[in-house]
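# nightly structure sweep
# worker-07 picked up a monomer target from the shared queue
# config: single-sequence mode, recycle default, output format = structure tokens
# input follows
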Amino acid sequence: MTDYVDAGEAIPHVQLSNVRGEAPATSAVDYDRIRGARSEPQNWLTYYGTYDGQRYSELDQINKDSIRRLSPAWVFQAGAVGMQSGASTYSFEASPIVVEGVMYVSGPDGRAWAIDARTGEELWRYKHASPYDVSLCCGNVNRGLAVGHGKVYMYTLNAHIIALDATTGKVVWDTVNGDVRAGESGSVAPLIVKDLVIVGSAGGEFGVRGHLDAFDAETGERRWRCYTVPKPGEPGSETWPDDGEAWQRGGANCWVTPTYDPELELLFQGTGNPAPDFDGGVRPGDNLYTDSTIAVDVNTGEIRWHYQFTPHDLWDYDSTMENVLFDAPDGRKLLAHADKNGYFFVLDRTNGELVRVFPFVDRITWGEITPEGKVTPKIYPDEEGVPVHFWPGPAGGKEWTHMSYNPQTGLMYVPVQEVGATATRRRREFKESIPYWGAGVAVDIEDFYGFVAAIDPLTGEEKWRWNNEYPMCASTLTTAGGLVFQGTPTGEFVALDASTGEKLWSFQCGSGHHSSPTTFEVDGRQFIAVPTGWGGWVEGFLPGLLGAAAGDALFCFALPEQ
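# output follows
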């Protein structure tokens, strides 16, 4: 008989470090404060900075004159080591939140931190345990946190919505919101509205039915669920087959944070592709509410209106990306959406009426959309085993990474991807937790490029573009300093003149950008924060850089102290 030595009790890994384990208490962050976030630009209170999704800051200490003196103030190393959940690569995709000098940021593999935003010192850390074999479509990623009601909210890889104490990082409550065995997962940054925490599901590539959920911010109890594929008898169900189970596996997941209009009390949520991808023969019809923007009543979860960008999608053109809210000079409430399909849409956000549609990429071969919004498919994988090439590829003319809007210039700054793909239809039977793809797909490894496009959403005119050798795979940020910030796949973080597109500054971060930079101010000093860490679904948007350097560092830039 073997004698075993008592190894003792395990202790939390964080105790074997210099981490304090506590962050300073901040003033209460509640609905009213987030609603007025534009009035306190020293903080970045919510995912997009403000409910409207503009990713614009009134801070101007860093401007066109001072930008040449911008340099790193500190670097935080996230330390992605050891085994990661899911058979896929990780990426540092977050958008840092800052409240009164404390930064809250998430990383891949269920990790979250509180950091001193002035010095970069780690204050507390949290690690959520996810199964190593969790089914993930597009990388081990998390796009951010929400902060409010004394808590930090996170949606995890294995579909748990959790609340942490904002001062200690300890778990307050933990609610399961999906079946990880069926392929459901979570990657979205939560959104706080009133006393609710809003999150959307991921996992459409596994043939799950998408949903948007609201939870009680104090208790974690679900208050409502909005399914994004209607069941038989509900409005929109006529766009799915009458018989069979196609609607139950329909996709339309909500894996990007919605925007919100407090006056209308509407959430504007983009939805994902239908399942299976590419093979429309098993799901005839327009397949609502896939590839759509849905306006959801925040109090009840009911869909008030919808607009579908790609009916009966055969190209994997999710429409999950952001819906930026802005007002026309005459006061009309508008919404801007740059879709994967290569077209830019402007809608009336009170009723979903199409105001304008125009292409924002150079190459579109999959089909055509007229100025009136009529969609005509032209090229798609309709024969078994026959390869079909189309532009844009399945990552789209713009992926999930976000554009920004500067009210000073009236321009949207759009990160554009010019890359095509070849799809060969391969019909497969549905099996739970197995990818439900209807084609083999090869994204082009040459003949690609990218640019930042400055677009007037009222006219559709492109005012300028900043060209790059590689597609743009990170979000833009714009400020009152007359600047636009953009990270590149090869590691450069650049600042552009918001009026002309001239490159004014750059810094090599050592790993590609696939995240969302933010800006804030501490003790009168403005900072620009950007997570870097190349990875995620690289084979889908830029396979030519699959071998590029990975990373997991958060850079924070500022002007030299006087």
